[in-house]
Design a protein that fits this description.
The protein is 31% helix and 26% strand. By secondary structure, the chain is an alpha/beta fold. It has one domain: Spore Coat Polysaccharide Biosynthesis Protein SpsA, Chain A. The strands form three sheets. Strands 8-11-9-10-12 form a five-stranded mixed beta barrel. Helix 5 packs across helix 9. The longest helix has 14 residues.
Amino acid sequence: MKKIKKCLFPAAGYGTRFLPATKAIPKEMLPVLTKPLLQYGVEEAMSAGISTMAIVTGRGKRAIEDHFDRSYELENQINGTPKESLMSGIRDIIKRCTFSYTRQHEMKGLGHAILTGETLIGDEAFGVILADDLCDNNKEDSVLTQMIQVYEKYKCSIIAVQEIDINDTNKYGVIAGKIEETDIIRVEDMVEKPEPKDAPSNLAIIGRYILTPDIFDIIRKTQAGKGGEIQITDALLTQAKQGRVIAYKFNGKRFDCGSVDGFVQATNYFYKKN
């Protein structure tokens, strides 16, 4: 079995819940303390042994490419000053990782964004991190590291899930299935943003996936679903019907930084932690 070597970051969305800030700034570049959300995601992928980062961007997202590149003028300006140490983290990322980019020209949902990244991934299993789901494990194994360990055992697509309030199911993809072992469920059904009365459980999918490469052909054949978008949930259901999707109840804290409330909670958490 090949090792997971690449991580895909869908980063083409408009971030409308953070307007007007995201009119000119990619939502993935909004900072929690002094680091943008996307950098936290890249660091999580690195902690899982991944050094090839594939990013699906869109119009107005050049700041992402600039962030993961050298800035000679800035570095010259702060060279030899106390502020130079503030750049050590991003310098290490740039040194150790390879970044590649492609653009999603139309916003057709997460499934379509992942399919857009096929040219960067190729024919191999890969991780997916949604940067606005910010996770922390307080120096324990990161969520993606935990998921890779599960993948190495089950050798199929892995999705991260967490228990939510049943009244919030219409905000998430929701799964149901058969318990394989502690915190591990073989998925039998999944529904995108069901109303609470229609939800198969209170286990919600969050923005961490490990996907096998056949997912690309499945997405190509998947019709638009909820909201007229191509949902990754619908594509994964095809795999699940063949017994090839495992849901993992991860260890760690997760913040929904796609919402203002979650963003504030994450900022307060990391401020107290640091």
